[in-house]
Amino acid sequence: xxxxxxxxxxxxxxxxxxxxxxxxxxxxxxxxxxxxxxxxxxxxxxxxxxxxxxxxxxxxxxxxxxxxxxxxxxxxxxxxxxxxxxxxxxxxxxxxxxxxxxxxxxxxxxxxxxxxxxxxxxxxxxxxxxxxxxxxxxxxxxxxxxxxxxxxxxxxxxxxxxxxxxxxxxxxxxxxxxxxxxxxxxxxxxxxxxxxxxxxxxxxxxxxxxxxxxxxxxxxxxxxxxxxxxxxxxxxxxxxxxxxxxxxxxxxxxxxxxxxxxxxxxxxxxxxxxxxxxxxxxxxxxxxxxxxxxxxxxxxxxxxxxxxxxxxxxxxxxxxxxxxxxxxxxxxxxxxxxxxxxxxxxxxxxxxxxxxxxxxxxxxxxxxxxxxxxxxxxxxxxxxxxxxxxxxxxxxxxxxxxxxxxxxxxxxxxxxxxxxxxxxxxxxxxxxxxxxxxxxxx
Length: 442
Prior knowledge:
The protein is α+β, with helices and mostly antiparallel strands and about 450 residues long.
């Protein structure tokens, strides 16, 4: 049996996740999609992927939904694999599930298969560490995640599911390239990768038979320069929905622990105007990413730079939920505080990574020094985002896009989506009604 066969078998045999947890995943991704759809970066995506006869297929709609969700930077993340599976899997499940008229149990199995294959393969390629090499793990594994999701919805057994995953791997590319001026294709690339995965699933169910031994030889090494750890990919621990992190605000996950630590210090009474310095220590793997060394001229850099998040937390905290991530560096208070932030490697934190992404923040203000270390930030498995805090996040993201009343209706439908087919249908209808570009002809 090949590794891909083994993974496919496990995806179909593994026990179901608690339905409540799956419903929360649906709601979290729906809020991310709605918030992303309202940004300026979504407009060219809609025009390109849903605007004319060139873009009328279900895979095109999947590409658009995935792109709008992923660009939000508030979707879930699996830290050990450094993948954001929800942004790929949930849009795929909603659109393919509607087309296939899948029942609720099949829909739930499809979600779990998509999440779990991205987590497993992401750990197998050491996703959290290859990011610094310019390889985007979510982009690399989006075809496999979408393929597994779609294959289950299309009625695949183990053989068809294995073929879908293998064909999806043939369509993978982990390198999205650097950032240049103009309209960035980054989010569209992730969406198109997912669309390719759906096409792979359909082809596999139609009998096309790819090479299933891709993960048993040196294929990944030869094609992508990546080693593959079969043992980590097949390990049964750490690859379930309870291992996901949900972000409390719009920010790259690598910044969340540091932001929480800084906000905790502010809550103790530190006056932002009297801060002399902020030192942020993190594991070596993401020092460069969050340091903002290339400035914050783009929306993406404003989401990945911890100094900018700290300045917003100090002076405009409501903007931490702003998915548009407008540029506020013209405010002298923002600019001044950013200039006082230093990001450095803290070797004491390295052993937590990649399963946990901690930070230690030290603030010197008004002659006093205070320090705090956060290992499990809000939203992490050890400190889950749930209850009122989860609902507050959902409403903060969804209400601006569909009104407070609309957001409340969607929230109620989402909470019951996997308990009752009527709720799932209502949830999907309300979400697609709010984003008309996702409607298909069927």
